[in-house]
Amino acid sequence: MFKAMDGPMKVAPFTLHFYPSRYLLMYLFLLCFSVLLSLYYLPLDSLQFLSVSLLVIGICLRSFFSTKKVGQLVYRDQCWQLITGDKTVLADLYQATVWRSLVVMNFCAIGDGSKCSLILWPESAAKQQLRQLRVMLRHYPVYRDTII
Known about the structure:
Helix content: 25-40%
Oligomer: single chain
Distance between the termini: 39 Å
Low-confidence stretches: none
């Protein structure tokens, strides 16, 4: 009934192209707005309110613009590649959380060991590519066992 496999399971090469996410911008805007709204009810004078408000807005803008904009995610020859413009980083996937409307992938770069998280919203890529990625992450051996 079951036949023994010859060697490790092979996974076909996979490429995912990304688009900018409006969901992330919306969530950061709502977070910033709710913090600013809650600051309004604190007993602060106008200078303190202005300085704290500018600090909150600066933190939200920095968190949005400091994220790495990944153009492509490629899986080929049992290795992940994160491609941003002209820079390609080889990385190992050590953890992923997969839901229907959100995928979070945690990578460790090969070489320098830096860690990177990749968050994919439903609008981040084509629906068919996102579906293929979710199936691949749930059912195929694309993870690295240990982190160095």
